[in-house]
Amino acid sequence: MLSEGQIFDAVRQGLWVAVIVSVPILAVALATGLVIGLLQALTSIQEMTLTFVPKLAAIVAVFWVSMGFMTQTLVAFFDIRVLPLISGGY
User: Fold this and answer.
1) How many angstroms separate the CA atoms of 9 and 27, rounded?
2) CB 58, CB 24: distance < 8 Å
3) Residue 31 near residue 65, CB atoms below 8 Å
4) Closest by alpha carbon to 51, among 35, 64, 66, 65?
5) From the CB of residue 10, how many other CB atoms can be counted at a distance below 10 Å?
6) pLDDT tens-digit series, residues 17-61
7) Distances (CA, A) of 81 to 2, 19, 67, 85
């Protein structure tokens, strides 16, 4: 039986892995949104698709580039932390 400390530690590590995996995509979405917003403010163009399409393209590109890193990070977390908890190896 797992103790509360082991469960909380696994959840804490899982949340940290989620943050690490999501940072590249969120950072690019933020930067792209700021750049497009600045361009819209400077040119007075208020087209809704102008913000959506470049941001979506940037997110897809970063996801494609960082897919290997994300996969390795998640697999390592499951191999090192989750599977031993499931098998009872703690």
Assistant:
1) 27
2) no
3) no
4) 35
5) 16
6) 999 999 999 999 999 999 999 999 899 888 878 889 999 999 999
7) 13, 16, 21, 7
Please provide residue 64's backbone torsions phi and psi, each rounded to the nearest 5 degrees: -65, -40
pTM over 0.85, yes/no: no
CA 29 to chain centre: 11
> Where in the chain are the domains?
25-81
Round to whole Å and give the CA distance between 79 and 90.
12
Closest C-alpha to 42, from 34, 53, 32: 34
Portion of the chain with pLDDT greater than 70, in percent? 98
> What is the number of residues in the chain?
90
Return d(Cα 16, Cα 19) in angstroms, integer. 5
